[in-house]
Amino acid sequence: MILLQIPSPVQPEVTELPIMKLVFDPNGLWIMVPLFIMFIWATYVFIERYITIGKSAKEEHKFMSNIRDFIHDGKLDSAMALCKGSDKPLARMIEKGLTRIGRPLNDISAAIENTGKLEVSKLEKGVSSLAMIAGAAPMVGFLGTVIGMIITFHTMASNPNNFDIGQLSGGIYVAMITTVAGLVVGIPAYICYNVLVARISKVVNMLENKATEFMDLLHEPL
């Protein structure tokens, strides 16, 4: 009796996909550079603005109470000194209102409003760049993918007799990595942008409430 030995099926060799090798692949490096710059800038803007807005949102203990007491006591110089000693948008806004005391209330209100708008514009400095990165990064990544696919298929068309499926698949996954990189940069930038916008909105509401409180204070009998 002859036993036939059936050869075991050949297992395909599975190779690992080193992400860093794809990121720094020469074929896609040119498109990764601007994406990397966008990522660094978005990170810097978010951290710097998050800290700055957080400081601006904190009101000093009994600040408005002290302002009220100084005004009622006729100590405008003390109220001005208190404002000058605080590096906060609220203090600068109230200081502008104090300098207009004695003028019509409409003039005081307009001065406070203009100062508040100026302070908010300072808080919004650089935030719009996050929105730009959130929209541009995925598009830049997609551009790299499209160009990579064009180059891959052009290579196939130029050498139809030497078609290699390995080269095709290799070119495709290198091209696709730019889309992934664009999304990795764009999605966090979009989230960070909305976080900062929400925090700025809270500061705006606080400034509006304190401005109203200050104007009500001026209507109170001394």
What is Rg? 31 Å
Distance between the termini: 119 Å
Number of strands: 0
Number of domains: 1
How much strand? under 5%
Characterize the overall form: rod-shaped
Number of contiguous helices: 8
Average of per-residue pLDDT values: 81
Largest sheet: none
- What portion of residues is helical? over 70%
What structural class do you assign from the helix and strand content? mainly alpha
Low-confidence stretches: 9-15
Helix/strand order, N-terminal first: HHHHHHHH
Task: Summarize this entry quickly.
The chain is mainly alpha-helical.
What does this structure look like?
- This protein is mainly α and about 220 residues long.
- The protein has one domain (about 20-220).
- It is rod-shaped, with a radius of gyration of 31 Å.
- Helix 2 (about 25-55) runs antiparallel to helix 7 (about 125-160) and helix 2 runs parallel beside helix 8 (about 165-220).
- It contains eight helices and no strands.
